[in-house]
Design goal:
The chain has 269 residues and is α/β, with parallel strands linked by helices. It contains ten helices and 16 strands. The strands form three sheets. The protein has an eight-stranded mixed β-sheet with strand order 5-4-3-2-1-14-15-16. Helix 1 runs parallel beside helix 10.
């Protein structure tokens, strides 16, 4: 029997209106009644997940959430940290210089400052609106080298972002975990982090083997999580790379694909 189902949010649990359908919500509640832990695993900050945690009744003792692509794993109630792996201001300076060379927009997340950017752009506004958080404009050059940074993102129109990705130096992949989460977001996180790393940290904390875990996602930042889980599931709208490594391909996020997984592998098991 599976004991954890880890769910990506955008393009997976959420439909294109950023809503969890009632059918899926009810199925997840039934899964929890069977003793299965439902864990949201997202690139979003915790603040951008709170409304969904509340909606799914997951803000309770011994419930957990993976945010910032697994850089932060914590309890949903009391927010006790299980695992935290981040970056520094020195990493931000490196990425900022690279972004200027490539002519691409950038923003980052700081645990004390929130969503920070040297210049507000369209996709920083998208990030802020999705998560219902504020934007703080600041000069990245003024940030101390040892300041804690959670993650960094290159953000731009898909064609501009893809051109920049093609020009990235190999060094960046050697130094960081670089994953594309949407056509307009490229995420740069600690080399030792990722959704798979975060999910493993949680599994170790709960003493649950990977074979008893389901992970569902659609994009590049879900790959390591899907590979780690005993049952890795790709959404019908997932990238081809995600589908290639998945054990099972479910319906699209607009077709209650998560509901299909819950019914097939948990409720009807």
């Amino acid at each position: 029997m599976y004991k954890i189902i880890a769910l990506d949010m955008d393009g997976t649990l959420l439909n294109d209106e950023k809503v969890i359908t009632d059918k899926t919500k009810n199925a997840l509640i039934e899964a929890r009644k069977k003793g299965v832990k439902v864990v949201l695993a997202s690139g979003r900050p915790v603040d951008g997940l709170k409304r969904y945690l509340n909606e799914l009744e997951l803000v309770e003792d011994n419930e957990f959430v993976l945010s910032y692509n697994g850089c932060l794993v914590q309890k949903t109630k009391g927010e006790e940290i299980i695992c935290e792996v981040g970056l520094t201001g020195k990493d931000l300076h490196y990425a900022y210089e690279l972004s200027r060379q490539l002519g691409i927009n950038i923003h980052a997340f700081s645990p004390t400052r929130g969503l920070i950017t040297p210049k507000v752009s369209k996709y920083t506004e998208v990030e802020a609106n999705i998560n219902d958080i504020d934007i703080r404009v600041c000069d990245f050059n003024t940030i101390e080298e040892d300041e804690h940074i959670v993650k960094i993102m290159f953000i731009d129109e898909p064609e501009i972002l893809d051109k920049a990705i093609a020009s990235l130096p190999s060094e960046i992949y050697e130094r960081y975990n670089v994953v594309k989460s949407t056509p307009y977001f490229l995420e740069i996180i600690n080399k030792e982090s990722g959704k798979g790393v975060g999910l493993k940290a949680l599994a170790d904390y709960l003493d649950i083997p990977s074979k008893e875990i389901i992970a569902v996602g659609d994009a590049g930042n879900d790959l390591d999580m899907i590979e780690f889980a005993g049952l890795g599931v790709a959404m019908g709208n997932a990238t081809e790379k995600v589908k290639e490594i998945a054990d099972y391909i479910t319906g699209k996020n607009t077709e209650d694909g998560v509901l299909e997984v819950v019914e097939k592998f948990i409720l009807n098991d």
